[in-house]
Amino acid sequence: MFRRTLTRTTALVVTAVLAGGLVACSGSAAEVPQDENARLDIWTRRPPGDPSEQVSKDLAKAFTKKTGIPTKVTAIFDDFETKLQQAASQKDLPDIVINDTAQLGTLVDQGIVREVDPGEVSRTKDISDKAWDATKAFDGKHYAVPFSAQAFALFIRSDWRKAVGAEVPKTWDDLDALAKKFTKDDPDGNGEDDTYGWVVPGSTKRGYASWYLSSFLWSSGADYFSGSGTKLAPAIDSPEAAATLSWFQKSFCDKTVVPGSETAETAAAHPYFDSGTGGMYLTGPYNMARFDEAVGEGKVEVVPLPAGPGGEATALAEGENTYLMAGSANEAGQLKFAEFAASPAGQKIGMNGDENGSIVRLPINTTVDMAAERKDERWQTFNDIYTDASRYVPTVPDWTPFLQSSAKTFNAVASDCEADPESELEALAKDFATELESQRAGG
């Protein structure tokens, strides 16, 4: 309860600060003198020094060359959201933020992003409908321009799988069996007991435990909510959800998950795979080049998550949006940058071929021929999953409190073999109901 209350309070404080200072919630140009040649400060959620930072700078450089508008790119990874809130409280927001689609509700709730009319975006029909839907907030309005899309798939050490004599998993029982073989059968052949089945970013930070488990929940027939619009109700305490959380807990208790995963964020989890500690990892396409370089080409296969007990396979859809921040002195330039980033030219720069550092995972511009830009056929696997078997997080006014509270519950159950998933989810459902009422989304 404390974490959720803190999140909501921080949002209200930021909004109040903005309303009384640099910008109001709408951040209209009438309140800030405009200069169409003013520099655009661009924040992107990337690790400084990572190849993706350079690709981000390449994108901005190409934009400047095309338009003459100067830019400055700042890559921030650790505590990105906290630093953005600090910038808001100091009335010093960047002009552009490239960040996760799941952050949309929080940014709108804080009042620090501008509304976007898709009809005013050049060649808006070239942008996929699914990507546009990911820029739509609970009020039905758009608050960003799509930039990148992705879905999650299962990375498997194919050399390990062949070494233990296993087939590509087709069911969750197959997943369990393969995880045990990777843990017990010395798949790397070094004679040491130092390998595990699963790599899991199970930390509560940024809601990672829930973010990771969402694909499994949906594939089991479970969901976070039932209903729609302002008539939502908690569904997280369903029998299907309890069964999935029990399955998740058992993986930890059977020790087929890499030790330390309970506190691992993605930055810590990725090395578990590329260092040869874990053999299966449900993650995004941005890791392909990294894993190939570390493990060796031809040793990493990408397959869809098998259908769960619910009879379907549903992966988390994600991506990034270009957010036009409130209070900019160059609103015209903001829109031009968002249009360029979504254009074929901008998308191709961001895709970066098959090289490491991609910031456009799957193009949101339907005129871009992905096969012409990338030769690795595994990208098509991700594209098929995104198109046919993925979904974004639920549309609520602010998803973050639900993400955090569910991550805390999932993490607690995974960390304690004596915990009762059913009773923990019942308590979580009550928290969900309170939060839905607070956000005026519960019927």
UniProtKB/TrEMBL annotation:
This is Extracellular solute-binding protein family 1. InterPro entries: SBP. GO terms for cellular component: ATP-binding cassette (ABC) transporter complex, substrate-binding subunit-containing. Belongs to the bacterial solute-binding protein 1 family. Residues 1-29 form the signal peptide. The keyword Cell membrane does not apply. One of its GO terms (biological process) is maltose transport. Keywords: Signal, Transport. GO terms for molecular function: maltose binding.
